[in-house]
Amino acid sequence: MFYVLRKARKLYLPIDILSQLFDAMIAPILLYGAESWGYENNDIIESLHLEFCKHIMKVKKKSTPNCTVYGELARMPMCICVKARMVGFWKRLVTGKEEKISRTLYEILYRLDSGDVYHSTWLNCIKDILTECGFVNV
Questions:
Q1: DSSP 96
Q2: Which residues contact 98 (CB under 8 A, 6 or more apart)?
Q3: Torsional class of 39: left (φ above 0), alpha (ψ -120 to 50), beta (otherwise)
Q4: In degrees to the nearest 10, what's the CA dihedral of 130, 131, 133, 134?
Q5: What percent of the chain is modeled with pLDDT above 70?
Q6: Which of 80, 103, 106, 126 could join 76 in a cystine, given CB atoms 3.0 to 4.6 angstroms apart?
């Protein structure tokens, strides 16, 4: 992140280009594997994202409201990206070929969760995301 900021300062890059650079170079590193660990606490990722956004806007880090930063830059919190990746991964698991190992493991996990044998935090997070979005019956 600091390398991108240093190069951007030397090249006098505008804010919109810096946002695109974040999405292309930094976000993939932060979100690597988020499909499986996304149910964990994502505060570190979000604080890094906000630090980058506030730095490129040249505003005070402590006193500037986060919602103002998101609005001015037309960005969303990173947790939205994490949830989107998780649901996309879940969809690929559910609709994938039945002979795939990942699909078989998902079905076993789902049966264990449905039978109250084992409660998966990941699966509960997927249920919560779908419920938030109005897809309770999915």
A1: S
A2: 104
A3: alpha
A4: 120
A5: 100
A6: 80
Query: What are the structural domain ranges in the chain?
Result: 2-79, 84-132
E strands, the chain, are: none
| CA–CA–CA angle 34, 77, 51 (5° rounding) | 100
In sequence order, what are the residues at sequence separation of 6 or more whose Cβ sits closer than 8 angstroms to the Cβ of residue 42?
78, 79, 82
pLDDT tens-digit profile of 65-115?
999 999 999 999 999 999 999 999 999 999 989 999 999 999 999 999 999
Token pair 């938030």 is found at: 132
Q: How far apart are the first and last CA of the chain?
A: 38
CB 15 within 8 A of CB 57: yes
8 A C-beta contact, residue 77 and residue 84:
no
Q: How many residues does the chain have?
A: 138
